[in-house]
Each structure stands twice: as structure tokens, then as C-alpha cells.
Amino acid sequence: MGVHNVVRGDTLWGIVKNTYNLTNNTEIANMVKKVADANGIDEPDLIYAGTTIKLVDIQETPGDTFQRTTTPETDAAEDVEELTDVEETETAEETTVVTETDTEEEAEQSQNQNTGVSETVQQAINTKIESKNIETYDDIERAENTTVNLFASGATDTEKDKAYTDFSNGILKTYDADNDGTVTVEEFAKKEYDDGLHAYNISSQEFGGGEADESGKLLTQRFGNMFAQSLDINQNGKIDTAEMNFFNRMADELDGAKDGQISAEFESAAFNTFIGLDSADLNFSTVAQKYYGGVQLTEEEQKIFDEGMQDINKTMREQSGLE
What we know:
By secondary structure, this protein is mainly alpha-helical. The protein has two domains: about 1-70, LysM domain (Membrane-bound Lytic Murein Transglycosylase D, Chain A), CATH 3.10.350; about 75-90 and about 105-320, no CATH class. The chain has helices at about 10-20, 25-40, 105-110, 120-130, 135-145, 155-170, 185-205, 215-230, 240-255, 265-275, 280-290, 300-320; strands spanning about 5, 50-55, 65-70, 145-150, 185, 240, 260-265. The strands form three sheets. A three-stranded antiparallel beta sheet has the order 1-2-3, with no helix packed on it. Strands 4-7 form a two-stranded antiparallel sheet. The protein is globular, with a radius of gyration of 21 Å. The model is unreliable at about 60-100 (pLDDT under 50).
């Protein structure tokens, strides 16, 4: 059957539906599983631009043929600052030990401690992480009203810079699924998807609905994928401290105060900027709304969307100074 080169906006569901001319959802779902198995894709809802997917025949035996067509840069001289506070522990004293008397909350706080971070920033990190711990609909409302404070009003520029960096490092660590000190675009997107889908399901159940259907999963996937890909400002396949730092500074500055107080409201506004939902370009904005609404874009609309996202990335590189 050949291969399909994944571009922004693609979903495995849409690729299968169009390639095999299927209209029955059950048949599509079964074929999605076959294609996913044949390509070694563990999460069919998560595919990434720049990868190649083998399109199997109906009778073809699955095999692990999934491969990446873009390779992240590995030259240390070209890499932007990594997670500097993630170091391999070498002694028993450096290892976090949770005893039987530790509560679950105390254990989590202990694991979230970051070396050399001020008490104020550590509290901000803990508050932000806690806001993502969604178990009830009330937790969703609480998260939407969360504000963290990184420094006092009299902080020096040096202290402010360190506070931003420490906070970005602390948050970015939560995306490092394999604890190797590097957050890939895939790791970031998967956590965004998992967290978003979990909140989506809880919100839906609150109003008498069930778990997300394919359209709900697709919407959540697109938000997570595009945010991760856009946050990768220098397009090297990784989300590093400098990129996360730029996002947090933007969220802080959107209210005009630049006071170290980052609210969920302005973080959401920064998120919308990164994925193009607040674009002044009417044509792009219209297409973006359709895309994030789960609509399959036409070839012309996809071209408008891709060009718009490239323009956003160019603007982000210029504003952040990251290349």
C-alpha cells in the first residue's frame, strides 16, 4: 500500500479512513489498530508530523516499521539549556526515601524538591503541579483560578531571571517521562494529551456525559500536539528550559505587570498565541478554529494552517532569540 508522510493536522483515524475509503466506524477502528500495530504505535491517538507510517494491506502481517524522518540535533554546542537541575544521584543520602510514616502528599512534595530553588519558587512549582492533579470537576475550576507567585516585588533582575528559570525547570521535569533529563516533543505532547483527556472526561461526566468519543480524543490530541510542536521554538525535537522560560515569561507579561505572578487565565492566553487561536489573520483564524474543532481540513485549508503555524514559529523565534 505504500507509506504516508505525516504532516501537521493528520490523525491516524483520518489517514485510515481516506486511504482505505472506509465509512463504517467499526471498520475504521479495526484498521487503525492494524496500522498502529504494523508501525509499532502504542498510542494511535498520538502521531507526529515528520514521521512516516506504513500503510498495510488488509491481509498484511503487522511488523515494527515505524520510523522517524526527522532526527533531533545532538550536538551539545547547538543545544539550548537542558534541565540543569536533573542529576543522577550517586549516594544513598541523595536518594529520596519514602518511609511507611510518610503521607502520600509528603512523598509527592519530597519528590518535587529542586536543588538550589528558593522557597517561594518551590511553592509555586508545587502549586502548579497540584493544580494539574484533576480528580473532580471542582479541581478543574480550581485549576482555572490558580495563580503562582515567583518572586517578591523588590526582587533584583538577577533574582527574577533565576526564579523564572527555576520555575520552568521544575515544571518541565514533570514532562520528562523517562527521567533522562531531556523532554522530547513526543513526551511533552503525550502528557498534554493525557492530562487534557482526563480533564475532558471528568468535565463531560459532570454534565451527564460519558468518556470522550473519537471526536473528543481528536480535539484533545490536536491541542496537545500543536502546543508541543509550537513550543519547540528552535525545532530540534526537544522542549528545553529556554523555550519553557519564554512561554512562562509571556504568560506573566500579558497582564502588563511583569510581577512574577502567572495566572491560569494568562497562561491560557499564551497557549492560544502559541497554537494560533488568537491570530489577527482572519483566514488563518477561521481555519484554526475548524482544525481545533476536529474538522478534517481541505487541502487548501491545510496549506493555510501550515503556513500560519510557520509564521507563528518565526515570530516566536524572533521574540525569544532562540534559533
